[in-house]
Amino acid sequence: RPHALGPGASGRATRLAWLGDALVVGTEDGLAARAAGGVLARLNGAAPGGLVRALVVSGEHTLFAIAGTEIARLAFDARGAVVTASTREALPAGDGAPLDLALLANGDVLALRERGLARLDAAGRWESVPIALPPGATPARILALASSVWIATDAGLLRADNAAGPYERAAAPAGRIAIAALAVNGSGLTLAGPRGVLHGALRAPLRASLAAAALPVQDDFTAREPAVLAVQRAALHYLALEPARMQSLRARPRQSALAPSLEVLGGYGGDRSDDRDWDEAFTSGLDRTFFDRNRARRRNFDTGVVLRWQLGAAIYHPEEIDASRETREWIELRDEVLDEIAQLYFERRRALLDFAHESDPYAAARLRLRADELAAGLDAWTGGWWSAQLTASSPRGPTQESTP
Predict the structure, then answer these.
(1) Structure confidence by residue, pLDDT tens digits, 209-248
(2) Using CA atoms, how far apart are residues 86 and 134, in angstroms rounded to an integer?
(3) Strand (E) or helix (H) holding 119
(4) Across 203-251, where does the E strand assignment appear?
(5) What is the C-alpha radius of gyration for the chain, rounded to an integer number of angstroms?
(6) Going by C-beta distance under 8 Å and a sequence separation of 6 or more, which residues neighbour residue 176?
(7) Distances from the Cα of 243 to the Cαs of 86, 231, 232, 340, 364, in angstroms?
(8) What pTM was computed for the model?
(9) How distant, in Å, are the alpha carbons of 49, 97, 105, 115, 274 from that of 70?
């Protein structure tokens, strides 16, 4: 059954939420509500206007909404059609536009923004929560559970034990693809991705007692593995992304002013002369005729060298703008490579840790294959350096290693 909301932006719905049997609809211009069996009516004046980006239910008759640049807390009557109380909080400046809302177990509100999180406590105080996302990732949605916080981005699904992080990628494929939306379903998460819907089980985090137990963190395989910093340096060297190259790229435009331009000139010239002379003489009663002819040719060659210095370019070179643009792209590429190496490195270690404590043979085999897959990725990014280091440090040789 169609339910008209209104003309223009107020008729285009963006978010939905149920308060018992009452329906609350967010639009591109404010909120509307409908009690059970009633009709949708706009909440003019009782709720903020503007684009509604998020609706989160808190309690039986209360919800939070992002509308425009404000976060509103709305309390409804028992029927869910009339707002009985409303408070609004303007988001603090910075960190971009608000994207989504989540409620923590203690009642605090988390507002996901383009470049970070904003936390609103029960006393109405805002706190900016910086988060470290993968380079180039744009956040889309946030979900807060009892023991974890999840952020969906266009570069994968991220997880942390609390809002402040640190955040890590979820298991593949969710941690490597764009996630547009997510919802919790019992002990699992349902995700909207580019190839349909994904569903995954929530794995319980390691308890403190397990972390304090005698785990083989420094077992044979970790003792002979290179550190993550060494792996990242090897990858940068293999891909020719060392810092020295960037510094050289930035210094070369001005250095080029000290090298002169060379111009070599050459010339050719020549002439010819042809002389003829006639003469007559009378000697001893005889007439004599004399004829003289003279020919000459000359060739001239000249060369020159011109050196020009553009000394003004030693102060500012026009190509410095191009070099700065190339440097920014180089830094973005380097950060993406470093992030990829770190994700592969520590995800492999987590797989090995789970492998060492897995009693199910099938699950252990899958973890072993996962660790092999991640090791192959490290080997590809470093041009074979990773496997060479493990081979050199293994006393038994690569064919007898107990771990990948």
Answers:
(1) 333 333 344 444 555 688 889 999 999 889 888 877 777 7
(2) 37
(3) strand 116-120
(4) none
(5) 39
(6) 155, 156, 169
(7) 54, 15, 12, 18, 41
(8) 0.54
(9) 9, 10, 22, 17, 103
